[in-house]
Amino acid sequence: MSRLEAKFISLRKAGRKALIPYVTAGDPIASVTVPLMHDMVKAGADVIELGVPFSDPMADGPVIQKASERALVHNTSLHDVFAMVKEFREVDNETPVVLMGYLNPIEVMGYAKFAELAASAGVDAALTVDLPPEEGAEFVAELAKYQLDPIFLIAPTTTEERIAKLCSVASGFIYYVSVKGVTGAATLDTGAVADKMAAIRRHTELPVGVGFGIKDAASAKSIGAVADAVVVGSVLVKQADAHQDNPDAVSPAICAILSEIRGALDSL
Amino acid sequence: MSQQDSINDFMNMPDDRGHFGPYGGRFISETLMAAIEELTDAYESAKKDPEFLAEFDHDLKHYVGRPSPLYFAKSWTEKLGGAQIYIKREDLNHTGAHKVNNTIGQALLAKRMGKKRVIAETGAGQHGVATATVAARFGMECVVYMGAEDIQRQALNVYRMKLLGATVVPVESGSATLKDALNEAMRDWVTNVDDTFYIIGTVAGPHPYPAMVRDFQSIIGREAREQIMEQAGRLPDALVACVGGGSNAIGLFYPFLNDAGVKIYGVEAAGDGIETANHAAPLCAGQPGVLHGNRTYLIEDPNGQIIETHSISAGLDYPGVGPEHAWLKDVGRAEYVAINDDEALAGFHDVTRIEGILPALESSHALAYVTKLAPTMNKDEIIIVNLSGRGDKDIHTVAARDGIEF
């Protein structure tokens, strides 16, 4: 059983919602990332989404763009990200790690090599933002050889027909993008999210996580009421921006926010 | 047998999912998929609709001023002492470049789809001006994304866009140039997907853009083919055009792709030289990768990060290239070469002095290659070179290179 599957089964048994924080690897400096991952688990993270920096993050808003830029100042590469996950796994062999990023660094490395190195580092899944299933058959096949889960996005504009298609190729969990826009965008319509959840669940038994637009305990709680997992990104990454000159302060600031959200989710 | 010999139709690309061999396709976030599918359906129906095509032709004739002349450059031909050189005068179009062929087509499509707001990315500002122009004419709201660096370099075009009623948004992210403007336009589109049409300026981006923009620009090659038959009584021996994203080039090349006797040369920007780190020549010195929705040749580092490019010409200063060019290179149907900044400037001065035509620095790359190619050919052979835009916008850049300030 994969780490993701095991995690969601145990959460379901406990009646808990999954909390999935996103941080960009190497932001603001490389030495922050692994201790931050451990701290986030202590603060209540169930799964960690680790961003692979890319020079042209087209689907991301300004907060996560800047995180990529900060990480790329010191050339954080896929190899560096694998090394971080490997180091994290020396202590934590339970918390699933999902890599989130764009296709080109993986193209350049080669799909087969990516899958092999990701699996041996202890990565559990890959969310490749600009790789829809129509273009992704070869990549998904390589991931499958190493029991890595391909995570796909579903958007508010995704048709029911495409929801069915995406659900048929996805494993691990489904990631629902709750707003029209980029990461960190403004308004969240909980009612519309609930409607779409129902449509998605008609096509899959997989857990459904919701992200883009969740920024505090209140919004996390309202989404947690209808989803299996809540993904929080930009509001955390802002802390790396705010404390970029004092990297020691990044983890405490992020974990303070996470603890609050954890509390809200556990009150459901 | 080479790949080229085994292909007998170069004009049936892309496949129905936008692939030119391994290139092209649709590498986009799910957040854009519905909009791209809506656009694809609308374009597929429009291109078969005689009414849409008639309106497009009407606007090209009466608003753009087509057909653009195919001009025999007698003095320049004699000076170079080789092949006869014909210049396709896209610089004489309304707004001064080939870009307007495409913006007319896409704006008509936007109107047909009921979109009230258009957005665009621009580097040198030519595509931004061409978009702002058609938006003004159709009464559409227009937002143009432009790298903050480029806004500094192209103040004249920025003001032109503002006069036309467009909002010009400076893009500060990344390297603050054309590629970042494209990223930002995509982000706008995702956010305002219901009422917004994204007018991409070149044959890049996700399917259907590379094919759609090519179709709109192919008027260049269709006219040139007719005009050379009329003037010379036969097809040319070679075509030459500059390649940034590659829309003027594919516009000229496409109608000749199945004419085996016509050699095709795409000219990239070598900047300081393709042996240096400062160039914009992905076909000559890059590798395949995925950016801006399609697989193509890119200028990237060993980790797959996109590298900042350099060219004296802002319109060629882009790290990718249209996927059809990537395919034409691999199958050997077209040859891609590079011309550096100094050579392009020499081409600019030559054609200005010898023919009395002031070319854009983009087009000057193609002209500079002609000065190398023509002397190697016989006097009864024919070259058609695409002069994709006029050079007024580049006067400051040229003057600065000569140490002159206004």
How much of the sequence lies in strands of chain B comes to: 15-25%
What is the straight-line distance between the termini of chain B?
Answer: 57 Å
Q: How helical, in percent, are the residues of chain B?
A: 40-55%
Structural class of chain A: alpha/beta
In helices, the fraction of residues of chain A equals: 40-55%
Shape by Cα distribution of chain B: globular
Oligomer: heterodimer
Into which percentage range does the β-strand content of chain A fall? 5-15%
- Please list the strands of the largest sheet of chain B in the order they lie side by side: 3-4-14-9-10-13
- Biggest β-sheet: strands ordered side by side in the sheet of chain A: 5-4-3-2-1-9-8-7-6
Q: Got a strand count of chain A?
A: 9
Key descriptive features of the protein:
heterodimer; A: 268 residues; alpha/beta; 12 helices; 9 strands; B: alpha/beta; 17 helices; 14 strands; 44% helix; globular
Tell me what the structure shows.
The complex is a heterodimer of chains A (268) and B (406). By secondary structure, chain A is of the alpha/beta class. In chain A, 51% of the residues lie in helices and 14% in strands. In chain A, strands 5-4-3-2-1-9-8-7-6 form a nine-stranded parallel sheet. In chain A, strand 7 (174-177), helix 9 (190-201) and strand 8 (208-211) form a beta-alpha-beta unit. In chain B, helix 6 (126-138) packs parallel to helix 8 (155-163). In chain B, the strands form four sheets. Chain B has a six-stranded mixed sheet with strand order 3-4-14-9-10-13, with helices on both faces. With 406 residues, chain B is an alpha/beta fold. Chain A binds chain B through residues 53-62, 65-66, 69, 72, 75, 77-79, 102-109, 129-132, 134-135, 152-155, 157-159, 162, 166, 177, 180-182, 185, and chain B through 17, 25-31, 33-35, 173-174, 179-180, 183, 186-187, 190-194, 287-293, 295, 298, 300, 302-306.
